[in-house]
What does this fold into?
Amino acid sequence: MVIREHGAPVPSLRERKRERTRQALVDAAAEMFERKGYDETTVAEIAAAAEIGTRTFFGYFASKEDILFPDSDARARTTIEAIANRDPAEGPVDVLVRALETVAETDADMVSPMAAVRMRLFRTVPAVRGKALQIQMSAQQEIARALQAAFPDELDRVGAAALTGALTGAVNGALDALMDDEDAATVALDADLLRERVRQATELALRTWRS
Amino acid sequence: MVIREHGAPVPSLRERKRERTRQALVDAAAEMFERKGYDETTVAEIAAAAEIGTRTFFGYFASKEDILFPDSDARARTTIEAIANRDPAEGPVDVLVRALETVAETDADMVSPMAAVRMRLFRTVPAVRGKALQIQMSAQQEIARALQAAFPDELDRVGAAALTGALTGAVNGALDALMDDEDAATVALDADLLRERVRQATELALRTWRS
DNA sequence: ATGCGAGTTTGCATTGAGTGCATGTTAGCT
DNA sequence: AGCTAACATGCACTCAATGCAAACTCGCAT
It folds into this structure.
């Protein structure tokens, strides 16, 4: 008998099966988007490639765009966790700077094949860009809430939101500009280079706020 | 004979007609979105209300979302103009702060009926939010370019983008939090109150950077 | 004023995303 | 083995959006 203490509960057969199908969908979609392009790939084709019915696709992802962001809340979770693990001596700005740097270093999703595809599609397909920005914004809201909760005396709700917006906005702006510099396709293809760019953008953008 | 010196050229009959139809579409859409909701209003209904064929709608707006942003580049233009009219003594941050404050004061589109509808839909309809964020981002890119052009010695491309992202991000974050505070519907209904909120958010967000 | 051409309007057909519904199928638990 | 809830699937449907071709209208030069 396998002993697990406080870890994730043993996934049932149903859950494992569902997870396998989900992953098959993501992989199939990534491959086809890469090969044929986003608009040229239909949901029906993705479903067929994963050997499920077209209708069933929407039981896994609410829309075609959603499959590009299979765990969209990972970044927000990492950031909030980093805020929770703060040094009692740090102020709000320091904590947030460190949290965002942590994310830039350890973003797990950055290495998945889907991440590379997504990066390219972000720059070319409006619908994808829109979805990404929505996710980014709701992450920002969560982070602002967490930050305000961590510093109830120093920050009010609006102040926390403004500060969070300023730092994430700076990182995004810098990243956007960096990606424009060189051939975006080249960067997206190389996971290490991509990660390096994120680090670089974070570093450049946050330099101002470092204490 | 009407004498016009250097002003806009006399619009031809064709152009006037087209502009009238365009406005009729915007008005009809605003009214129907308000009354029935966004998803519940079809493009065919909007077209019918403006007395044109459904197909023709797409000759005026590329998508259903686009009708919510009838002159999407107004804000970017105002900001860039404010950058152009800078005081030679000002630094990049001061110029950008002043430019964004100018926009908050004199945003012409803020009073149109569509602006109120848009504000409400932004918070409730994902597609609208996505489109708004896309427009916001491309505006940011233009502003960053203009800022870098204005300060080629002080700023590089990435620095300009990071700075622009920081300030606009702060304003957006603050505005978002402010809108959440009270009943968003109430605010959107009152154009003056709405404008006041934008001013307030800008003021709060940019306080840090004021010299 | 006449008529040619570019810009517009429109209907029709088509594709593809997404939803509601009703019906089968399967895992999990007793 | 049998019951139940979750899941899969097909079907019909709505709606956004596009391509195409035919009609129409304004602007302009002759």
About this structure: Chain A has ten helices and no strands. The longest helix of chain A spans residues 126-150. The two ends of chain A are 52 Å apart (CA to CA). The interface with chain B takes residues 126-127, 129-131, 133-134, 137, 140-141, 144, 157-174, 176-178, 180-181, 201, 204-205, 208 of chain A (CB under 8 Å).
